[in-house]
């Protein structure tokens, strides 16, 4: 991985930068991580973006408004201070129907994001099959408008045609990303579109955690190893070093 000053760095959050928690709000931000990312962003000329299934609002609660970001699996983004958020494509009736069904599934949480609906079952793994059936039925009401994303203990209904990969390709067409070599790190099946995108652009793909099959070219065992690698990258790029190792 030579010539690192010319990289554009795209990173998933949960399971990649941060250890997974039972609920999205339960994650812990390691001390020193925001400072490390801030330093990396400056060392890379601003070409650093968080690429998450979380909404932009949720990303900003973790890392308040510091960097470019892609939320809800590529359906909304902030680039150079400008935010793009499309209108939700579902009806209140569809949401009410999903919520009514969810109430019969103890331990399942419906998260209503700005442009997507996520059904989390990390706290109730036995509900996985029922959650999948519920999500598939919701998407089947209008497959041209809705797409289904399956993640770790979550089924998510998103606007059709969006992915982390399409968002990375969009960023790579404009400054400060254009002309750089994209690097994307992720941990989940929803990150595979991002791996495919950066592989196709001659970039580097990094899978974090256990996975029997991934298109990523490199792998790290866990988020701690990912953070350790970022710490070394920051040093190699001559970034600030007055923060703790996260
Ligand atoms: Mg993740």
List keywords for this structure.
246 residues, alpha/beta, Rossmann fold, Alpha-Beta Plaits, 2 domains, eight-stranded mixed beta sheet, globular, binds magnesium ion
Word description of this protein:
InterPro entries: HAD-like_sf, HAD-SF_hydro_IIB, HAD_sf, OTSB-like, Trehalose_PPase. It is an enzyme of class 3 (hydrolase). This is Trehalose 6-phosphate phosphatase. Belongs to the trehalose phosphatase family. Its EC number is 3.1.3.12. The protein is an alpha/beta fold and 246 residues long. It has two domains: 4-85 and 162-236, HAD superfamily/HAD-like (Rossmann fold), CATH 3.40.50; 92-159, Alpha-Beta Plaits (2-Layer Sandwich). It has seven helices and twelve strands. The strands form two sheets. Strands 5-4-3-2-1-10-11-12 form an eight-stranded mixed sheet, with helices on both faces. The chain has a four-stranded antiparallel sheet with strand order 6-7-9-8, covered by helices on one side. Strand 4 (76-79) and strand 5 (82-84) form a beta hairpin. Helix 1 (33-43) crosses helix 7, helix 3 (92-102) packs antiparallel against helix 4 (128-140) and helix 5 (164-171) packs parallel to helix 6. The longest helix is centred in the C-terminal third of the chain and has 14 residues, at 223-236. 42% of the residues are buried. Magnesium ion binds next to loops.
